[in-house]
Amino acid sequence: MRQIFLDTETTGLSPENGDRVIEIGCVELVNRKLTGNNMHFYLNPGRDSHEEALKVHGLTSDFLRDKPVFAAVADDLLAYLHDAEIIIHNAAFDVGFMNKELALVGRPPFREFVHSVTDTLALAKELFPGKRNSLDALCARLGVDNSGRTLHGALLDAELLADVYINMTRGQEALLIESGAGPGHTAGVQAIDLSVFRLPVLSANEHELAAHEQVLVELDKASGDKTVWRLMA
User: Fold this and answer.
1) Which of 57, 82, 152, 207 is catalytic?
2) CATH number of 3-170
3) Measured in whole angstroms, how far is the alpha carbon of residue 163 from the centre of its chain?
4) Domains of the chain: which residue ranges?
């Protein structure tokens, strides 16, 4: 399944009070590899950003004045996102804004166009309970280079999130761009016949056997002499 990492920048924090999306960044993964088939829009929101929001993203009204409105890009965006797993950090925020933008152009809610939505903030809270789990904090914790992130930008944040997600879900340290990647894509991968290798068998030494026996004794005590290894023996 295609995975799309999505991030938005907005004029403020409340779509219910008229705040709008001003930037959308999407990064595509197929078979857990970057494809380079990304999508990025700056949008004219028809209003100014709040001062605090402007400090975060730096996208001024002058810069956005000649950019398209959401209605002009909606069809292309929805076709790109169609039936993919959408991965977002703090998904409720971005999905809420996308729902508002879609409602303004007479479209159904965001989730009706995609296969599913995965929230990496919720995933991070499960993996790292009690710790800071902002995107910057996760980059620092997982060794993802975010040195180029002086201001928030939707495409850069989506790229960082993809790297963070791979680290959180499989421990892969880096993402490789593979143009034309798709389901079943194996270009450049050489098959290796593992049957020609004979793996050595390393027996436990006396110290290791004694340590193992001590663990079994403790398990016996805790389980009322129902340790699986003892019963199997």
Assistant:
1) 152
2) 3.30.420.10
3) 7
4) 3-170, 200-232
The single residue listed with the structure tokens 């805790």 is: 222
| Distance from C-alpha of 81 to C-alpha of 83, rounded to nearest angstrom | 6
pLDDT tens digit at each of 233 positions of the chain: 899 999 999 999 999 999 999 999 999 999 989 999 999 999 999 999 999 999 999 999 999 999 999 999 999 999 999 999 999 999 999 999 999 999 999 999 999 999 999 999 999 999 999 999 999 999 999 999 988 776 688 999 999 999 999 999 975 445 555 544 444 444 445 666 666 677 777 888 888 888 888 888 888 887 777 777 677 76
**Residue 152 is a catalytic residue:** yes
Angle at 206 between CA 203 and CA 208, to 5 degrees: 70
